[in-house]
Write a structure and sequence with these properties.
Elements: H1 2-10, H2 16-37, H3 52-74, H4 86-105, H5 107-121, H6 127-148, H7 157-162
Protein name: Tripartite tricarboxylate transporter TctB family protein
InterPro entries: DUF1468 (IPR009936)
Keywords: Membrane, Transmembrane, Transmembrane helix
Length: about 160
């Protein structure tokens, strides 16, 4: 009698989140396969061309999608931890802030804000320390890429102050 209770208690239902991941894998595999079929081929004698690698990756993603769907149906995925939403919001806010401020404030300030908000998302509570540190670190990166390597990164008021 106790065996019936334990078997029904340990029986797991299908993992619907894993099914969503499997559908995403199928979609990416389909887009890659469609794109690979539409690549222009050069007249050649080999069967291996520019579409071979994307076709193989699409096949691999399709196989992973089948495997994920099978494991989701069986319910074999381990239980996931509770998701923390606040760190994700801090990091997404930092990315959005950098994209919005990159042309206006320049690379150093925008990336410094990204650094500070990402550090906040990972648990660093003192923004008044991480913001100036991020701006200084980003300015050093900008100087190396812009001045030494001659690559174009968007300058802002801080960069115009020194260069």
């Amino acid at each position: 009698m106790s065996e019936d209770n334990t078997s029904s208690a340990t029986e797991r239902r299908p993992d619907w989140a894993a099914f969503i991941i499997a559908v995403f894998l199928f979609a990416v595999a389909g887009v890659m396969a469609w794109d690979a079929l539409h690549l222009k081929t050069i007249a050649q004698y080999d069967r291996i061309g520019p579409a071979t690698a994307p076709q193989m990756v699409a096949f691999g993603l399709f196989c992973l999608g089948i495997w994920t769907a099978f494991e989701a149906w069986r319910g074999d995925f381990p239980e996931r931890d509770r998701q923390e939403v606040a760190p994700v919001i801090w990091i997404v806010a930092g990315l959005a802030g950098q994209m919005l401020l990159l042309r206006v404030a320049g690379f150093s300030i925008a990336t410094g804000i990204l650094f500070a908000l990402t550090a906040r998302g990972f648990g660093k509570r003192k923004l008044w320390i991480s913001l100036p540190f991020g701006i200084v670190l980003s300015f050093v990166v900008w100087a190396i890429f812009s001045q030494l390597l001659q690559l174009t990164l968007p300058p802002g008021p801080l960069e115009h102050l020194f260069f």
